[in-house]
Please model this.
Amino acid sequence: MLRLALSYADKQYEIQPQQGGEKTLLRVINEVQGGQMHVMWTATDKEKEEQLLPIRIPLFKGMFGFRVFIINRDTQSKFDGIESFDQLKNAITFGQGRTWADTEILKAGGLTVVTTMKFSGLMHMVDGGRFDAFPRGVHEPWSELEAFSQLNLSVEKNLVLHYKMPFYFFVSNTNRELGRDIEMGLNRAIADGSFDRMFYANEAVQSALEKANLKNRRVFEIPNPNLSSATPIERKELWLDVESL
Model:
């Protein structure tokens, strides 16, 4: 997507993937601020948008904000009768990582959240009934179920939780020309349709959307209190439209 955006720029850019193994998010932010790295992408929040210059165009059309649930397969009937958010809030408990941004979002939405530090612990806890549902991005649960195939788990069939959780490109606050070129390129790609063509042609996106079957799920919306007021929520063309799938 970065290559697509910069192909519209009036100057020539060379993209060189950063080498050096896995890095913490804090280290990557520091390297962008210090000029050792020019572009990064991650889920946004108010703090990151103060540290760096965000290009406020959701790279995955907000797809990662749609969360389906990993559950104990014997408990599907507990979810079948849920038709309102109040029912969901009162009947279902959720598991999340203790330090995850999603945890704060779910709690702010009034949901009951059980936390632990380890991902594997969450899988075993939902299997054992310590909580009812483990929300996962639409691209995540099927490979995770394969990795924990010894557990009695499945993906819940009817519901999806949704909050705005855009992933943006970020550049240094001192690298505004690059930021303008990326933003201009992404907007041009959206206008001529190449952004959507690239997004929907991606095999991982196709697989996730097909398996998640979002169009036939009941969607429950909750706000994301970590979003900046500058988030382009009103630009409908930037966001995944479940009804059009």
Summary: The chain has two domains: 2-61+166-192, 63-162. The CA atoms of residues 158 and 217 lie 5 Å apart. Strands lie at 40-43, 53-55, 66-72, 93-97, 112-116, 134-137, 153-155, 159-162, 167-171, 218-221.
